[in-house]
Amino acid sequence: MSASENTPHATPDKTTSRVVDLVDEVLPASRMAVLALQHVLVMYTGAIAVPFIIGSALKLSQEQIAFLIQADLITCGIATLIQTVGFWRFGVRMPLMQGITFAAISPVIAIASNPAIVAAGPDAGMQAVYGAVIAAGVFAILMAPLGRYIIRAFPPVVVGAVLTVMGLSLLPVAIQYAAGGFVDDAGAPRYVGLAALVLASIILINVFGRGFVRNVAVFLGLVIGVILAACMGMLDFSAVSSAKPVAIVTPFYFGMPTFYIVPILTMCLVVAITWVESVGDTIVVGEMVGKAPTQRTISDLIRADGLSTMIGGIMNSFPYTAFSENVALVSITGVKSRWTVALAGLFLIVLGLSPILATAIASLPKPVVGGAGFVMFGTLVVVGVKTLQRIDFDTTFNNFMVVGLSVAMCMIAIVKPNFFSFMPGWSQVVFHSPVIMGAVTAIGLNMALNGLQKSNELVAAH
Fold first, then answer.
1. Are 53 and 173 in contact (CB under 8 A)?
2. ∠461-437-129 over CA atoms, to 5°?
3. Whether the predicted pLDDT of 268 surpasses 60
4. Is 99 helix (H, G, I), strand (E, B) or coil?
5. How far is the C-alpha of 457 from the C-alpha of 266, rounded, in Å?
6. CB distance 103 to 162 below 8 Å
7. Percent of the chain beyond pLDDT 90?
């Protein structure tokens, strides 16, 4: 896509000045603080869900999960500041909130639990994860100038397929949590009942809620779930009492990172997938504020995502991308100031300095998280299906093949994880990850059957 295609038509200086004022406007402190806090609340559940799910799936201790949540919140804040405030050629300088992509969950779990890697030591899996994350961040920075061309490998048919398999791969996690997690009496009525009540609460808030209340339905559902869990005697916050009020997150908590070629390639693919999310969100926000992104803007965006991902690997977190929930919030409130979102980033850093808060989140009962997970991950499937509605399935069978086989490959990794056990140990990271299996299939088949078609249709979806 050329610069001329992305640059808006010339406008009078007065109008242009007004547009710039909207993006760079500094609101009164009290109003800006409330709006910034609203941004935090809208993205908070999605932000903490990723480290919580990863830590729980890897059977990390509550202390370790709390540390991952702390690291995530701090790095979310740093990533948001890089993207909104920016420096040199890093940052799009628009109101874009940053968070960990859900696309990282399955690959991270696959890398960290790979027997060939884990054999090197108890923390070897996480060390390999962070080596891959750092390398993927460097990859994004180096590839930023070519990002607009690489995006062509992710047309709507690929994005829709990937989002669909992403949701499908995460739903088993929600089901396991709704049943009580990895406990002896998993599936007991009290666990399933609590998860169902949380799910019902979120649905009712979405149906009858309005405005901001509706936007934070998942967050309110979690709060209701915690209250219900307390009434049912299922709440255990004993670890919170021993947590420090303030603590600094130290780099390389699990040890120095290690670098394996297949995990690195896997994480590079995850990062490339997030470019579609980030670029799509930037186009949407650009339309809102009257500043259509140019080729340079897209490069600066991808370069900032790469730096944030690299910092994430150093600070014990994961790949970063724009959060579409907050893009919707910009549209709803009409407040287009990047400084409001930057302040939300500062709030996240402050929240990340509190082990008490992180430990409380890590102590949430699994059924509560499972009930919310049905909504979050089920919605992700629907977003993928909605994206696929834009695809031509009537005049060509190629798109049927791309979507159908990518879903099939994803389901192999979900239903029969050891299906490819005959393959070399180093390759199991790919074959054990439903998202990577589905994504590689979708990208490869699309390139083989449809080619790299030029398209300005970029899809924003988280």
1. yes
2. 80
3. yes
4. strand
5. 25
6. yes
7. 35
In this predicted structure, the answer to whether residue 15 has a pLDDT above a threshold of 70 is no
Q: Which of 156, 163, 164, 168 is nearest to 446 (CA)?
A: 156
Pick from 314, 282, 274, 275: nearest CA to 103: 274
User: Is there a contact between 336 and 330 (Cβ–Cβ < 8 Å)?
Assistant: yes
Tokens matching residue 281:
């969100």
Checking if the pLDDT of 1 tops 70, the result is no
Taking a C-beta distance cutoff of 8 angstroms, is the pair 76, 98 a contact? Answer: yes
Amino acid (1-letter code) at residue 276:
V
Which tokens in the block code for residue 106?
A: 């399955």
**What is the value of pTM for the model shown?**
0.74
Q: Residue 197: which residues within 8 A CB-CB, separation 6 or more?
A: 224, 225, 228, 371
Is 60 exceeded by the pLDDT of residue 311?
yes
**pLDDT tens string 413-443:** 888 888 988 888 777 777 877 877 888 898 8
- The most distant pair of C-alpha atoms in the chain lies apart, rounded to whole Å, by 69
Half-sphere exposure of 106 (CA within 13 A, CB side): 32
Q: What share of the chain is helix, strand, coil (3-state, %, to 5)?
A: 70, 0, 30
